[in-house]
Amino acid sequence: MLAPFCEGEAAEEPVVRLGQQAAGWWERQGVSVTRRGTVVVTLNRDRRELDRFARRTEGHTRLDAAALAALEPDLAGRFDQALHVTDEAHLDPRAALRHLRARLEGDGVSFVAEPGRGDGLTFDCRGLAARDAFPDLRGVKGEMAVLRAPDINLSRPVRLLHPRFPLYVVPRADGHFMLGATQIESDDRRRRVRSVLELLSAAYALHPVFGEAELVEIGADARPAFPDNLPRLIRRGETIHVNGLFRHGFLLAPALARMAVDMACDRGKPEFYHADHG
Asked: What was the pLDDT predicted at 278?
């Protein structure tokens, strides 16, 4: 999801500000981006969650039941209030990365799996594997599921607010939906039964049709994060380290890419410049 305003509920100001550049940048690279905003809902018993979210974010309009039904007909009759965050978007991350890699390799860029093997200027984007260089990197585990539910149609991401089990559902092609994502302070990449149950239960609460869905995939990984949850750019000789994007990888990657180029071309210190104390 390219959802800077929704992320603003808990994220720092640069995430919201710089994240607004993301959708346009991905489009300019030839990646397919869907711009239909985000819908935010909550169960009636958790109405205060919606009010709290509205106070902490911007860029949204409040919908009543009729307006929500017009926007997402398959949610008709299920929620009496919602928020529509209009200027947000989503993309297929795997397709986007395949596209970018093919373009870069066509331009002569080489991808290497080991540090120190690059010739000339090297960008180190190894995530948690770079803890050999940055011991204060930590892992924040995220788990997700992919369902195939051809009997329900959603045209934009939907966030279901919940005090314990928040959920987002992102539509993909051919009736597929990505459910995400847990956030656990751990770099353990094992898939847990409890997390899957929480995700699937929240999806069922969003719409019972998800109870009949095919479970296509369960995934788990660890996001690299520094103590302040903001990224860093650090230069050591001919290596520029780009790391610590936390849960905002696709949202902040365009801004970090521009800053990394500025650093490579000695155009001053970028916003996320971090002095090298290593």
From this structure: 59
* Backbone dihedral region for residue 270 (phi beyond 0: left; psi -120 to 50: alpha; all else: beta): beta
Give the model's pLDDT for residue 14. Answer: 94
Q: Assign residue 166 a region: left if phi > 0, alpha if psi is -120 to 50, beta otherwise?
A: beta
Q: Pairing relation of β-strands 60-64 and 81-85? A: antiparallel
Number of Cβ within a 10 Å radius of residue 51: 15
Positive or negative, the CA dihedral 12, 13, 14, 20 is positive
Contact 246, 223 (CB under 8 A): yes
66 DSSP 8-state letter: H
How many residues can be counted in the chain?
278
Which architecture, in CATH terms, is 38-86+138-225?
2-Layer Sandwich (3.30)
Q: How many CA atoms lie within 13 A of 25 on its CB side?
A: 16
Q: Determine phi and psi for 64, rounding to 5 degrees.
A: -90, -175
Sign of CA dihedral 220, 224, 225, 231: negative
Please tell me whether residue 145 adopts helix, strand or coil conformation.
strand
- CA–CA dist 103, 87 (Å, integer): 28
Structural contact between residues 196 and 165, judged by C-beta atoms closer than 8 angstroms:
no
Q: What pTM, to 2 d.p., does this model score?
A: 0.89
Task: Assess contact for 147 and 176: CB atoms under 8 A.
Answer: yes
CB atoms within 10 A of CB 98: 12
What pLDDT does residue 114 have?
A: 67
3-state secondary structure of 11: coil
